[in-house]
Amino acid sequence: MHDAESPTADSDDAIAEAFEVVARSAPEIRGGLAGRRGKTDEQNASGETQLAADVWADDLLEERLTAIEEVGQFASEERDGVVEAGDGEYAVTVDPLDGSSNLKPNNTMGTILGVYDGDLPAPGRNLVGAAYVLYGPITTMVTAREGEVTEYVVENDGSRRAVREDVTLPEEPTVYGFGGRVPNWTDRFADYAREVANELKLRYGGAMIGDVNQVLTYGGVFAYPELESRPEGKLRLQFEGNPIGYIIESAGGASSDGETSLLDAEVEELHQRTPVYVGNRDLIERLEAGF
Ligand code: P6P
Fold this sequence. Notes:
This protein has helices at about 10-30, 50-65, 185-195, 210-220, 235-250, 280-290, and strands at about 40-45, 50, 70-75, 85, 90-100, 110-115, 125-135, 140-145, 150-155, 160-165, 175-180, 200, 220-225, 255, 275-280. By secondary structure, it is an alpha+beta fold. It folds into 2 domains: about 15-165, Fructose-1,6-Bisphosphatase, Chain A, domain 1; about 175-290, D-Maltodextrin-Binding Protein, domain 2 (3-Layer(aba) Sandwich). The strands form 3 sheets. An 8-stranded mixed β-sheet has the order 4-3-5-6-7-8-9-10, sandwiched between helices. A 5-stranded mixed β-sheet has the order 12-11-13-15-14, with helices on both faces. 6-O-phosphono-alpha-D-fructofuranose binds near residues 101, 179, 224 and 235.
């Protein structure tokens, strides 16, 4: 727990340590993918078939993140419930391999981390840090804390070097990426998508981290929208929406569930889904104006 003299010292340690654990684990996770492309006969709490890689990366991160003294809870997209890990005040969430279905076509994937101050399930406003690793042609990591976003290259030994500091979305947007099947989009989202498609270039790779990283780099908007068949969308608020919304808002962009910032969304349960819209502020404002 915090001591009076250094009220933020522990929080810095816990956040920095969690970032360090994920960075140092990234080369190992990347190195372990080739042999773990197979499906298990298990499903996660969201009903998705788990790959051997999902389970393996999850176990590895759970062990290392719960070893951080100030971490009291761990939760993952791949686990039903919260893992109690002592009396630390921080709760960490992971999507250990976001976009693991991209393993088969050898496309991008990512690892998403959220560090919440307080128990889970938690609203995005409780986040004190968030990060993602992108397994692309090179391994990069983006971290956000105290309003600042930093991009790192992660070396093969797990060390990292900052390549972009105080990252902000470019003023002029260039790309968009929208998930779900077009016939399943609601009319109001389809209207918005038509407008945006006339202005920006399509960049959609099927793994949120790869698509969001394009938006962070080039400016634009990523959405996994409300669907006719699934008004709550596909992505999980706790593990994907909140951390990514926190990172994009820290980079001067905006996030939304269609009505309000993802960080203000009501949290009822750990694996609840939410529509996710993140990107340049005016593009998100235009979406909300049409909803
Ligand atoms: P679809 C990956 O499975 C994921 O959770 C996100 O990373 C990604 O944005 C989305 O689902 C892709 O979904 O329906 O396009 O395969």
